[in-house]
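Here is one chain, start to finish.
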Amino acid sequence: MSSQDTAHIAYDDPQRNAMASRSTWVSVLVNTLLSLLQILAGIFAHSQSLIADGMHSLSDLVCDFLVLVASHHSKNPADEAHPYGHGRVETAASFALGAILAATGGAIMVAAALKLQNIGHLPPVAPLALWVAGVALIAKEGLFRYMLHVGERLRSPMLIANAWHARSDAASSLVVAVGIGGNLLGFVFADSVAAIVVGFMIVRMGIVFAWDAFQELIDAGLSIEEVDSIRQTLVDTPGVESLHELRTRRMAHRALVDAHILVDPRISVSEGHSIAERARGRVLNSHPTVVDVLVHVDPEDDHDHDAKALRMPGRVTLLMHLSPLLEGLPEPLRVVFHYIAGKVEAEIYLPHDFFDNGAAMAAAEAQVVARLPGNPYFSAVSLHTQVTPK
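Its structure:
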């Protein structure tokens, strides 16, 4: 198999929907022919398990049409009502597919159990049923391998689920063949027992599909291994000092990530943003399943940081409290506030030509230091000169 055959197809690739639709139509055609063949042969050959397998194939048709509808809608781009896109349509379809499987399997088990209550009145199974079961087994195994290949290339949980559904069909056809063979050998109950086993297999597979889809619908995160790998990618980004919150969630074949990174609290907002964008880009490039990363920049790893920040006043109030400290000095060109450990550090940038010499700067600093102890908000104030072109 060539590398082109095994390469993944990007979510926005135009051929994605065409491949998904084509594989599902192949499944529709195969299941239509098999369901008609199995049900008719089961009726004429008096095989309850073959009829049950035919009903299973018929339920596959419902699932296939469900997949077609979901594939059509999930490819729609994000819009105002669905800002994260329509990928969860696939998840909902997988959940519905699992529910249909569980219900179908339960009905088959109940019907077969009722038949066993009157086993003495069951007619013998004709050899035709065994031949049809063999044909169904080969067809379903081939369908499974084809659909799994397509589903893995598209990284579509829905298509992969539908492929394994076909594999469960192949396994059920094997059980049916064994049951029919046992019946032909004189074990009259074998056909009904095979029908019950088929029903149980269908129920189990349906529960697994529905549970996996349900986990995604309630925003279950990625595996521990995947999360640890993403965490390491973020921490290894230059400028990121640590990471104290990382959340992930799935959306069909994609993943969304929210992260809180810690940076030097005294860098500028623009530098912090630059670090965050580099961290985001590294995750997107290193983890193909991740399609979006929201990076929040924090200045310190303090669980009470947000509460402390809310208790601190805003810029207008801080400037009012800063004014008495700077009395006698020129209007600052720029004031930078750093909210650190529940206090504020202020950086004051003054015109360069105001200070004739170093002594003037030292005198200004001494003035600010003398006034600082009585201020309720500032832990430190630093003076700087700024050279501006004329």
